[in-house]
Amino acid sequence: MPDRRGSDFAGLSVAIVTPLADGKVDYGRLKEQIEFQIEAGTRCLVPVGTTGESPTLTHDEHERVIAETIQCVAGRAKVMAGTGSNSTAEALRLTKRAADEGADATLQVAPYYNKPTQEGFYQHFKAIAEAVDIPVCIYNIPGRTAKEIDVSTIQRLADLPGITMVKEATGKLDQCSAIVGTTDLTVLSGDDSLTLPMMSVGAEGVVSVAGNLVPGDLIALVQAAAAGDYEEARRWHHKLFSLCANMLGLATNPIPVKAAMRMVGRDTGELRLPMTPLDSESEQKLMQTLQDYGLLDTASV
User: Fold this and answer.
1) 298 labelled as ligand-binding?
2) Which residues are annotated as catalytic?
3) What is the mean pLDDT of residues 38-49?
């Protein structure tokens, strides 16, 4: 296996939520969440991704959340700023601003809704990679964007020195295997429940949603897998699988993770429309899931 570009982002990255209160970003709560992650040993924070409700933040909010995250982290972890867009010009503007603020890398989601051709994907990511000096992580999530970045396109992009990582969220282990086997890019799982399977074929970590709740447990899983201790890694995988599947399957991310954080005493406030809270039946299921995992005591359910 070749030495991999982007391997300094191996391990646990957490796609952090954006706390909201009274229709505005709650920067005090944001800092609390950052400190929680730092204390847990999280390797990298990823602000303003899907989990951070990036589609409904204003441009000013988007830029300030990134800036505040970088300032609060203060070099104690890496920051991979979510600065993707379905407009190349907008992605360039957001990414240049994040780089100027001191971001360590940029997470670039595949352009959504307008469904580019594979050549369009290539030219989009190429323009961004050539415009900034920070590493680019391509985010392949067709369930959100309506179109998949083909392996052949990722292989072409791997020839660009600025592109060093792929956040792989197609749900296809074959896709991960193909990228690892034919490029020197670092692959990070984009699905919590697939972290161990992907690491078994060469991925080097995860950009996690569940890490907002249990970063220490995710760290234990990825460290065991990285060390080749698959018995220990499987133990953590099976423990985490029920939490991830039962929580994240209730509704679109970040609806259930924000509800779970409130239930365990780390409230990050409201959602912004069109995201809406869980219904009462789903709330009860989530409470039971958290109790079964050991995050809530019996009296809470």
Assistant:
1) no
2) 139, 167
3) 98
